[in-house]
Amino acid sequence: MAPDCTIYGIPGTGNGFHEVVIDGHISRPHWIIHLLGALAARQISVVSGFAYQEKFGLWKAGFNLDFTESTSALERLDFYSFVHESSDREGGKEPLLSFFSVTRTMDDLLELYLEGPDQIGFLSSILARVASLALFPVALNVETVDGRIRDRIVLCRIGVGFHSPSYSSYTHLHSLLQSFMVEEDAVSGDIGVPLQRAS
Predict the structure, then answer these.
(1) Which of 161, 155, 166 shows the shortest CA–CA distance to 129?
(2) Which of 111, 129, 130, 182 shows the smallest number of beta carbons within 10 Å?
(3) How far, in Å, CA of 99 to CA of 167, rounded?
(4) Model pLDDT, residue 140
(5) What gap in Å lies between CA 43 and CA 62, rounded to an integer?
């Protein structure tokens, strides 16, 4: 079957930093988890990037990757298989957070803002655990600044189609993220604006 999306790597300038670009239809809601888990398994770190769903299953994404701790070569990576197949690294090591917030968007989805120390596999680890609540990203923007992770992720609930997460999903998500908090900077998670949706 011909691929229904374009996925390609863009070589950097020889400093160990490269880019992967994704544009097209991907029906599996787990695809970002699969891709990032496969990269983490190869000690490839996501420095910055974005992904958003233009409409159901139609994605645009780009990630800047740090290969300096990896023995993998960009031209030998099969990004198509990464997107469509699960990785043993998914979930991986428990993520560490120093701050988080969970709030509603204007269209009634959930937006996470996460901060923590730089960790290879952080994003795939977070998303794999959030997926256990049937919550999956429809948009994200990630960056690492001065060794600090600063990620924003918009989540919807997967059932029969895509839905606004319930209040129960919201509270379970908050409890999950709270369990990843560390003492660094002595910052506590913020449950954000109280919600009115029934569970």
Answers:
(1) 155
(2) 182
(3) 21
(4) 96
(5) 18
DSSP the chain: ---SEEEEEE--SSSSEEEEEEEEE---TTHHHHHHHHHHHTT-EEEEEEEEEEETTEEEEEEEEE-TT----GGG--HHHHHHS--TTSS-SPP-BSEEEEEE-TTS-EEEEEEEE--TTHHHHHHHHHHTTTEEEEEEEEEEETTEEEEEEEEEEEESEEEPPPHHHHHHHHHHHHTTB-SGGGPPPB--SPP----
Nearest of 40, 45, 137 to residue 92 by alpha carbon:
40
In this structure, the number of other CB atoms found within 10 A of the CB of residue 20 comes to 23
pLDDT at 90 over 60: no
Q: Which residue has the tokens 């599996």?
A: 28
Cα-only R_g, the chain: 17
Contact 148, 179 (CB under 8 A): no
Q: Which residues pair with 176 in a beta bridge?
A: none
pLDDT in tens, 45-83: 999 999 999 888 899 999 999 999 999 999 899 998 898
**40: exposed, middle or buried (C-beta count within 10 Å: 0-12, 13-18, 19+)?**
buried
